[in-house]
Write a structure and sequence with these properties.
Chains A, B: GO terms for molecular function: acetate-CoA ligase (ADP-forming) activity; ATP binding. The structure is a homodimer. The first copy, chain A, is α/β, with parallel strands linked by helices. Chain A contains 25 helices and 29 strands. Chain A has four domains: about 260 residues, Rossmann fold (3-Layer(aba) Sandwich), CATH 3.40.50.720; about 150 residues, Rossmann fold (3-Layer(aba) Sandwich), CATH 3.40.50; about 110 residues, ATP-grasp fold, A domain (Dna Ligase, domain 1, 2-Layer Sandwich), CATH 3.30.1490; about 110 residues, ATP-grasp fold, B domain (D-amino Acid Aminotransferase, Chain A, domain 1, 2-Layer Sandwich). In chain A, strands 9-8-11-10-12-13-14 form a seven-stranded mixed sheet, with helices on both faces. In chain A, helix 11 crosses helix 17, helix 20 crosses helix 22 and helix 24 packs across helix 25.
């Protein structure tokens, strides 16, 4: 389920405010309540800056108003620098004055204690009641570098720091770490358009702000630092919109490991959510997920250039053969292809490099490059012309004295192509790196980090479209309603295997032929109808129960075997009912529906049998899924090699499996309010189709 | 098989040369043949510097000798800066003059063309003939910073660069990339004792030089950059010695991926070798393998401190909760444990941090730390006292203005404990990082890189001892000789299944009971003797053949089934012989022997059945292995969860499996000259032991 895509106009005004009122503005530029004004004076805010302070006529040399109500003209944004207990009242003032959005910097809300949580609830209520949008509380505020709107008390600008404007917008849940990332990004030459810190997210979430930022022309890529996801649907909506606009979202989300998730849960009021679900969203919607700050900044550097890769083939030119090999290793790890060039292109390259170099790719220019830097221009010319060079990396090091000519060659090549080209310049004074970054050419110090960034760029460039699921036309809604009504009427939350199978069968998922039976006689009749071999199972309404009590008999071939099994099972419990089912074979899949706190119902797929126990391997996707996305979920399983058909088997019918998963996802979508969870285990897939052999559903 | 452990005295003299002769010394300090003298003059070489030049009386102000023969006194090292075609003669001069070691800088040998390869062979020959040890050719030479012996023409010292001496020695096969790594290391504040570039390795290899360096008191850790391994046994020997001395070897070896290995093969005369074997050596011998330069330098920074971890438990103190969670994520990825503290320790921590922080671990000190930097001293005091804090990380950022007090607190804590303590200081001016590094305290910019380094440190600190295998006392060498003689007498390289099984049985590996049979009658008799169920197989002398021709019948229970199967199989080929074998069950392992170009015979283990096809998962180890190492090989398989016993099975008898692997490794060791390869597939392991069900061996 996805959220709204049209951003609130209040967010647009906040992102480029023509006027900012500072409530509680201090005359002291070093105080938290004085910093924003000091910053805006220092950098030259282009709009109207309106200090509000009932005790002073002037604040830091600017005329002050005693109250918001007394300010003339439109106010796009209020920054409330008052203590926590005065904030709710201040928001009311903003609403009354028609200010569409306010920043609440103060701490002392949900992050502090229960009383703070109550105060935060009041903030939530007043925002909902008045429609005034809130950033925070417990946040550093925001800034927009184009208009020098520095509605923040961040320390990131301390000293003689001059921020570098650029095409990346950055939204961080964390103030402190967000600031560090901002500083490190600027140090790495990455220009930023906006920085916003959401803090406790009483109202505006990271996702909703990204939704506003993605619409801005000057923003070409978005960075997000998340500790948890509050509004999954909104995140899906912005991811879809970002895909449409071809503006990548680069996200770090902490809590990836179990240890991290436990720590995240203790750290914020955030729900860490199930990280696997977030990962599924990332895969489905083309979000670029970074492991940490280094990867985030590496990706930012390369995405800032705005180029896209046409394929995954990397050409590397290196002045050290070993470095080229190291790059090939790292590139493979990150999904890139480092194939040798075609003989005719090798031949061309061989003409411009020394005989003891290598023209294959990675191209080894040899250390002769230092004494003959012109070689780089000639080699790059060929690399740029080579049609298979989807991405190009140049690996250099030290060589400060030859830097001018080398950089000239790189710049010339960079301008002559629209393909991604990066430089790895290891060691040396660092001045060549700075110069390249000034020229807008991504430059790294380490081949591994460059490879990670190039891999992210290729992955994004070649991303599949987000799911565009089509509702299956053949769902038997009458059956679905009947099963749910029957259970509800009897106050049952657990559907038995027969009911659960009929539920998915109503959504078009093939189920193993089966009949219920009340006694051994009925079981034998059912078995005859189905044909041997059959399974006889206790019909249970609690997941897992029937195996625990030994309530399953498999591979029964004769009447006598069926009768004997049925008799045994009927002895297990009073009033037991039996399910007689045709036996099937195939590769075992598990398909389930779970509820995620942030994203609602999700489909989880995994391999069954031995593999699930050994690999603990599963993938999650938000619903509904189209068949293409469902197929990607399945093929992204670590053990997906099994689908090729092992030990001489024909390939498994992946299309049928994907279709079944997509149908289950529609069931999850349609019954979001009714269904708590569902497990198909196993769904058997062979070379000609799928069949669900066991299914249990639990209602909410 | 391991090499010699006593380093050649010539290497020792080269590593601390009291006198260096420069053959072909140029008066021009900018020429390659003049650079070494210029560098030694600039840094003040502590020994005798002896330019050899028949055309000049003085070289760069130093008295020159026309010929080596005319120099008085001992000469520890010669640096030959002559063109390739004069090098062999110069080495002869060195030998005649009693110079134990010479550096050959010139290119134009095996890296160039076939003629160069011939010239290199002459070098190899003259080194072997005279005993003069050679570094190179095609190398940058070496330097030792303690004595300022700069026998190198590296450009790494260009400009006003002053090298930083320290406890890490670095040997690189690559000149260019080695130089970049050296420069980057120095830039990161990592002090170096020696740098050596081995180039074409006509004589001295990385391993042998590490063997010399590891004995030096001032060297506490070794770094190696490898493009291929030339002498595996020597590397094992130095790894074992380094383990004894507790001096870690930090290694980057390129060619890890298939693409990289292909590229490496094209790049150097090096054999990239099978990377999996190198990885096995790393695991067995406690070498720290880094993925690339970043990881290498991160590890170097932390190992330079010399501290060791007592366990894997990481305590993190952070001024941003989110950064702490990110660190927990990364730490888990690198094998560290980030458990919450015990309640009483949380209680102590809670007393010194704000109420909205977290005392659990990761400890969230909150951004209040900026205004109250004294908090860090109090919190670190508790962290250092906490007995479970095996490793400690402090996460800070920006905060230049509070840096002095924060650094003071960190230094105080660092000095008060012998546990590893690192700082991650993100963003800001970089000056705090420099200051911390000056104090010898490892400092990173990114939590992820710090976690990788801490993980490497913990892994090394807790490394198992290298294998100390005990020869199994019960090997039946008579049987082994008989089988080999029989095959050799008949000119056969392929042993059949029965012979191969008897071979491993002679080494004490349990094999499934089996008899050979010449006809159906014999097969039935054998089956009766063995007890049902049995398998009947064609006895084949080529691997894979018997399955291809359908020569295996399984699960035969009755005389009639055995007879019929035997009759069918005898029709397959003329003169076919049969093997009748007792059927066994269990989890399938594959155990094999292969030959590695660098390390000789190696044992390869993997999971069989479905898992091998889906996971393509195997591990290699050099032979012989002890049972503990064999067990680690097995448990390091990605699918090793299967040993716990799945689907209600009892745990598999890993000790029996490890014993079998160790016995196979002894077979590989003892028959290194006779055996080409051997495959046990499968070795079945259940809860009570192992049994080899199929085995085929090929002789050399």
């Amino acid at each position: 389920m996805e959220g709204n895509t049209a951003p609130d106009p209040a967010i647009h005004r906040m992102l480029h405010p023509r006027s900012i009122a500072i409530l509680g503005a201090s005359n002291d530029p070093l105080k938290l309540s004085g910093r924003a004004i000091a910053l805006m004076k220092r950098f030259g805010y282009t709009g109207r800056l309106l200090p509000i302070n009932p005790a002073r006529e002037q604040v830091q040399g600017l005329p002050a108003h005693p109250r918001l109500a007394e300010v003339d003209g439109e106010i796009d944004l209020a920054m409330i620098t008052l203590p926590a207990d005065q904030v709710v009242e201040a928001v009311r003032d903003c609403a009354q004055r028609g200010v569409p959005a306010a920043i609440v910097g103060a701490a002392g809300f949900a992050e502090l204690d229960e009383q703070g949580a109550l105060l935060q609830q009041q903030l939530v209520d007043v925002a909902a009641e008045t429609g005034t949008r809130l950033l925070g509380p417990n946040c550093l505020g925001m800034f927009s570098l184009r208009d020098k709107a520095m509605a923040t008390f961040t320390s990131a600008m301390d000293g003689d720091f001059t921020p570098r404007e650029g095409p990346l917008a950055f939204v961080s849940q964390s103030g402190a770490f967000g600031t560090f990332i901002f500083s490190a990004a600027q140090h790495a030459g990455i220009g930023i358009s906006h920085f916003l810190n959401t803090g406790n997210e009483a109202d505006l979430s990271v996702a909703e702000l990204l939704g506003g930022l993605v619409e801005l022309d000057e923003v070409h890529a978005l960075m997000a630092y998340l500790e948890g996801v509050h509004d999954g649907p909104e995140l899906l909506a912005v991811a879809r919109r970002a895909h449409e606009l071809d503006k990548p979202i680069l996200a770090v989300k902490v809590g990836r490991s179990d240890a991290g998730a436990r720590a995240a849960a203790s750290h914020t009021a955030s729900l860490a959510g199930e990280d696997a679900v977030f990962d599924g969203v990332v895969r489905q919607f083309g979000v670029v997920r970074a492991d940490g700050m280094d990867q985030l900044l590496g990706a930012a550097m390369i995405f800032a250039g705005g180029r896209r890769a046409r394929g995954e083939q990397l050409t590397t030119l290196s002045l050290s053969g070993g470095a080229g090999v190291l790059m090939a290793d790292a590139a493979s790890r990150h999904g890139l292809d480092v194939a040798a060039w075609e003989p005719e292109w090798q031949h061309r390259m061989a003409e411009v490099i020394p005989a003891f170099g290598s023209p294959r790719n990675p191209v080894d220019l040899t250390a002769n490059l230092i004494s003959d830097p012109g070689m780089l221009r000639r080699a790059l010319q060929i690399a740029v012309e080579h049609p298979g060079s989807d991405l190009i990396a140049v690996l250099l090091g030290n060589a400060d004295h030859a830097a001018d000519e080398l950089i000239g060659a790189i710049e010339h090549a960079y301008r002559s192509t629209d393909r991604p080209l990066v430089v790895v310049w290891t060691g040396g004074s660092g001045r060549p790196r700075e110069r390249l970054r000034e020229l807008g050419i991504p430059c790294f110090t380490d081949p591994g980090r460059a490879a990670a960034a190039l891999g992210a760029l290729a992955g994004y460039s070649l991303r599949p479209a987000p799911p565009s699921p089509q509702r299956p036309p053949d769902v038997d809604h009458k059956v679905v309603r009947a099963i749910l009504c029957e259970a509800r009427d009897h106050g049952r939350r657990h559907l038995d295997e027969h009911e659960s199978s009929r539920l998915i069968a109503a959504y078009g998922v093939p189920c193993a032929g089966a009949f219920t039976a009340k006694d051994p006689h009925g079981a034998v009749a059912a078995a005859r109808e189905l044909g041997a071999p059959v399974a006889v199972k206790v019909l249970s309404r609690s997941i897992g129960h029937k195996s625990d009590v030994g309530g399953v008999r498999l591979g029964l071939r004769t009447d006598a075997e069926v009768r004997s099994a049925a008799e045994d099972l009927m002895d297990l419990e009073p009033d037991v009912r039996l399910l007689v089912q045709r036996m099937s074979t195939g590769t075992e899949l598990i398909v389930g529906i779970k509820r995620d706190p942030a994203f609602g119902p999700v489909v989880v797929v995994g391999l069954g049998g031995v593999l699930v126990e050994v690999l603990a391997d599963s993938r999650a996707g938000v619903v509904p899924l189209d068949a293409a996305s469902a197929k990607r979920l399945l093929t992204s399983l670590r053990g997906s090699g099994i689908f090729a058909g092992i030990r001489g088997q024909a390939p498994r019918d992946l299309d049928a499996a994907a279709d079944a998963v997509a149908r289950v996802s529609w069931l999850a979508h349609d019954l979001a309010d009714e269904l708590e969870e569902l497990d198909v285990n196993p769904l058997l897939v062979d070379d000609r189709g799928v069949v669900a052999v066991d299914c249990l559903a639990v209602l909410r």
